[in-house]
Amino acid sequence: MFSRVNEFWAESARPGWKLTVAGTSGRIDADSRQRSIAALASLSETELVDACLAGRREAFDVIVERHRRSVYQLCYRFVGNHEDASDLSQDVFVRAYRGLKNFKRQSSIGTWLYRIGVNVCLNRVTAKTPLLEPIEPERHPDEGAADPMQSLVQSEQAARVRAAIRRLPRKQRTTLILRVYHELPHEEIARILGSSVGAVKANFFHALGNLKRLLQSEEC
Amino acid sequence: MKQVFLATMRHLTAEQFVDIVEGREIDDDGTRHLAGCAACRQEVEALRSVLLQANIVEVPEPSPLFWNHLSARVRAAVDETPPSRWWRWSLARVVFAGGAVASLVLVLTMTMIRRPPVISEDAPIERSSASGSTVPSDQGEAVTFDEDEPDWAMVATVAESFDWDDVEAGMPVRPGSAERAIAQLSDEERSELARLLKEALGLPKS
Ligand SMILES: [Zn+2]
Fold first, then answer.
1. Residue B39 structural domain
2. B47 near A CB under 8 A
3. What is the ipTM of this complex?
4. Number of domains in chain A
């Protein structure tokens, strides 16, 4: 495995590196970086982690590229806006990079990133989000929809559901997000949350029950 | 008879409700109970309904340019992250093997002549709090990074001062790098470096 990593190392350590004046770091130009990323793209996740640990910085770019959508979507589910979701996504990857040596390969990189993401998002949500938020319609209803009125109703419903989800207790909310929107198996959610499959199912059941009550109370 | 039968049976458990709503089969007792219990059937329908409602919530798709922008942001943030200890140390070995150690010894000797170090065996080196952070491992426990071991912290401090991209690219370290590294050390760090080098060179400690 390391021989493959070394091949890629040799591949990238060619001219194309350039040095700058004293006091600043050397920079690899964008083309070289892209070539290097393309060469790494065929590696498995384990090999990418090995490459990162061997000092191949671009290997982490490939990890980011593979997981940025799911990490962003997870963050968006927690905070409900693009700006915060972007910041949190960045935070998740930076923490992952710093902690890569702690990745024990007992789960997939994706599961590990979800775990970091959940921690980061819950900390942020606890710090920033008020307990009760006004329920507002979606900002961007589907303008291309055949029936604008139906689209508006749907976006209002979606906003109501999103607000209700944010009122769920943390574990229930996390379980619901990971199960419904990321379609993770209960076993994987249990690994992320450090609990049992039974506890995850119970959380999910209570999340759905509470969501139902919250939505009913909004309708009244 | 039927009422007695129902009364002796418990309603479905949370786990059974989830299994049914998600389309998995439950055991025969549960299936029989569901067939005879209107309350549980009603609960199943309510859960299915709320699940359908939850499913309408989509994450708005960001601009197609956003993904590369996010990657670039992460890259920039990671590049600002000081390399962790294992990485600095592996690179430090390259530097030291490449001859920088000779330069360090020379500078150190000059430094020691100018200002005799106070050797303190147990003086820990203060690290920036930014270097410690807690990231969950994939094993379930939170892991605190330990960057406080004085020996490695010392090497890391020196290693940080080099232009690692030069080293990565197989370029020789620029003249004066070691001197600049030494100049940036605090008195305490300088003392620790002196101790380490003396130890490595087999010189007496005082
Ligand atoms: Zn029942």
1. 2-55
2. yes
3. 0.78
4. 2
